[in-house]
Amino acid sequence: MNSLFLSGSLLLLAAADPSDSITIEGAQLTLIEHAELSARESGVLSEIIVSEGKTIEADAPLAILDDQDAKLLKARAETEVEIARTHAENDLRIRFAKKSLDVARAELKRSLDSFNRFPNSVSQTELDRLKLLADKAELDVGLADIEVAQAKLTLKLKQHDLDRATLQLDRRTIKAPFPGIVVQWKRQRGEWVDAATPVARFIRLNRLRAEGFLASKQATGSLVGREVTFVVDGKKHQGKLNFVHPEIDPANQQVRLWAEIQNDDLSLRPGQIGTLEISNTEPSR
Questions:
Q1: Which of 272, 162, 160, 151 is nearest to 209 (CA)?
Q2: Distance CA 99, CA 102 (A)
Q3: Residue 10 pLDDT
Q4: Which of 7, 56, 104, 264 makes an SS bond possible with 60, Cβ 3.0 to 4.6 Å?
Q5: Is 0.90 surpassed by the pTM of this model?
Q6: Cα 120 to Cα 255: distance, rounded to the nearest angstrom
Q7: E-strand spans in the chain?
Q8: Which of 205, 210, 206 is CA-nearest to residue 230?
């Protein structure tokens, strides 16, 4: 028989009255979230921050690979960003070019005024020279604008380099993908670790799955979302039914289902067997 539908002790004890809640004896707790954590880069495991059995939050650092080179590359990228920002924010070149243009235009205007009043006071050659200087000053303003625009683009490129260096440094740290516990370190400090090689086994205990089997006649779609109570050792733990398997075991006409059980006090453990009580109240739509 398919192991998915092996019931064994996971048998349904349902009341005859269909309005009563459904009770499943022998429901077993399993993990919802668990992971074999790997390093994203190759290197020497230089520090193990979290010991086995300690509960930590998501994104908390667990271990660090040797990151001296990555830190130096990030520091260099930060310096280059500062240099690029200095160039991008420096408008002295534009201000000087605009002042030069104002002076060149004023000198040309004075010469033209003088030429119009006294034709022999300024030669045509001098007027041409002044006109050329004014045109050049105007082009210098445009060139200064282009240089500042290029400096700003360079700043963006350097910022991308810094972001990449920061990411490379971050990849040297192994972090918790969700709140949980390290249950086994598979590598020790000082060992070489290849990228994608499992380093630690990590599990989450504050959310567990209670799995059981139910007669297919009672496994209607309206069950999903109902409140459930998982009872073990006389204690009740609340949760919600999340899944009813769409396939029916032809041998015993049962379906597998599971509910998510809250375990905030971490009193429950995967592998425990208890009673799963499914509320007779359908979830609100």
A1: 272
A2: 5
A3: 41
A4: 56
A5: no
A6: 110
A7: 22-31, 34-38, 43-48, 55-56, 61-65, 173-175, 180-185, 192-193, 198-203, 207-215, 227-232, 235-244, 254-262, 273-278
A8: 210
Residue 8: predicted pLDDT: 40
Q: At which residue do the structure tokens 């939050």 appear?
A: 57
Side chain identity at residue 52, one-letter code = E
For 197, 198, 262, the CA distances from 21, given in Å and listed in that order, are 47, 44, 20
Instruction: Report CA-CA distances (Å) from 212 to 107, 247, 274.
Output: 95, 14, 10
- Separation CA 43–CA 36 (nearest Å): 18
As given in the structure block, the two tokens for residue 253 are 């006409």
Query: HSE on the CB side for 46, CA within 13 Å?
Result: 9
214 vs 24: CA distance, rounded Å: 7
Using 50 as the pLDDT threshold, list the residues of the chain that sit under it. 1-19
Q: Return mean pLDDT, the chain.
A: 90
Buried b (16+ CB within 10 A) or exposed e, 216-253: bebbeeebbebbbbbebeeeebebbbbebbeebbeebe
Q: Counting every residue, how long is the chain?
A: 285
Instruction: Name the phi and psi angles at 222, rounded to 5.
Output: -70, -10
Report in angstroms the alpha-carbon separations of 109 from 7, 18, 94, 100, 119: 101, 102, 22, 14, 14
What DSSP state is assigned to residue 55?
E
Dig out the tokens for 116 from the structure: 């119009």
Using alpha carbons, select from 201, 165, 184, 174 the residue that is nearest to residue 45. Answer: 174
Q: How confident is the model at residue 7, as a pLDDT?
A: 41
Place of tokens 């009872």: 231
Buried b (16+ CB within 10 A) or exposed e, 133-165: bbeebbebbeebeeebeebeebbeebeebbeeb
